[in-house]
Amino acid sequence: MTIPDPLRLVDACYAAALDASLWPRVLDQVSACLGARGTVIVSYDPRRTADTLHSDSLREVHDAYSGGWWEYDSRIARARALGMRPGLVVADAMLFTPEDKRKDPFFQDFCAKHGLDELVAFFAPDPGGGLMTVSALREAGKGYFEAGEIALLTLLGPHVARAFDLTARLGVAHRAAADLGSALARAEIGVVLLDRGGAVRFVNPGSERMVAGCLKIAPGQPVRTIVAADGPRLDRLVASALAEDRPCAAEPIILRSSDGSPRLLAEAMPLRAGEPGLELIGSAKGGALLLLHHMTPPDLISIAPQLEQLGLTRMQALVAMAIGRGNSPREAAESLAIREGTVRVHLKAIFGRLGLRRQSELAIIVARLDAILSQRREREADTQR
After folding, report:
1. Considering the entire predicted model, what is its pTM?
2. Has residue 123 got a pLDDT over 80?
């Protein structure tokens, strides 16, 4: 199996947030990146522990686990006893000695029976409250997880957890809403549904608030850019999502503003036959879902420390943050009090370090980190209240 590009895998996680059927395949790709047999998301809430979200490769393991072994999961018991917190990445070797495992029925009668040994887990907040883990399981005899693999889970884990949280939130919205239209109206991002011909059939309130200066959206008409130079790129994005042979989302694009309002990150995904969104556009032949995100969220949080964890220097992290939020090299130079040429030198180094080819790819990473840290701060504020 070809090992997936970790940065593209981040996008696959967010695609799974909108289409839950993609999760088993995405978790298999996470496993391939980590040299694991499979990956599983486990809630520490006893009401949901048995109902894991898992790789296809762990189907038989899940059946046995949910059949009763979940009640004897020594890893959960040890993590609770040690007071694990969200954000930690922990391997079995940090919690158990080889002698511990030899004496423990969970490891000997369950893990060993299914050919499993080492585990490494990223701890995250459970959407339903409490803790959950994104855990990769090693095949027996394959040895310990290496430092580079643990570091990779440190990078991927927050995105997997965030995307899973979005899956859960969308599920709640769908159950609480009378129809998909009500659910989309609640969404905090812009959502535009296009029919097979690319004409607008549904616009949620989030879109109407954020498109000023960037897009013209009118029912029954194609979406048009206000900055003419962005028009061909938007047309290609939509056409790619509407193409019958396109199974997944195309690469997002950045749309500029004509009036100084925040730029938009635009993503387009195909609507497949049988999906509920087709009812809103009055077509069974397919369409497209256009998602819009502000490039510059209100009340920005610095993500420079997180970018440094990806291997960037302090100045490279500041440049990446500025460019990733939609600033031009000249604007970034002015805000950082350095020369534009220096910004371009740093940008070349950033692309090399992160394996990027386009500014839109950098924008995706920055947007995801912005979203994760904003949500973390919201949770902290809720806890204080």
Report:
1. 0.50
2. yes
